[in-house]
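Tokens for chain A. Residues wanted.
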């Protein structure tokens, strides 16, 4: 676990920081509980309520708007 966490994930993080802003990547951290709920549904058979889908829509909309503004301002070049 330590090897995967320290070597692989820090390498991926470094790659992402070269292409996206720190603010955008921090904001993308709001998806962590959503992935936990999704994985709980897939692997453990937990129920996912309507609030999950509402949260997913709100966070996705926020990320999409934020990313669009960063592209317009020239922070991110595709």
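Reply:
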């Amino acid at each position: 676990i330590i090897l995967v966490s320290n070597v692989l994930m820090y390498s991926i993080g470094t790659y992402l920081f070269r292409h996206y802003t720190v603010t955008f990547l921090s904001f993308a951290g709001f998806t962590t509980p959503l992935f936990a709920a999704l994985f709980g549904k897939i692997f453990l058979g937990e129920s996912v309520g309507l609030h999950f889908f509402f949260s997913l829509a709100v966070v996705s909309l926020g990320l999409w708007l934020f990313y669009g503004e960063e592209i317009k301002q020239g922070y991110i070049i595709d």
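The chain has a mean pLDDT of 86. The chain is about 80% helix and 0% strand.
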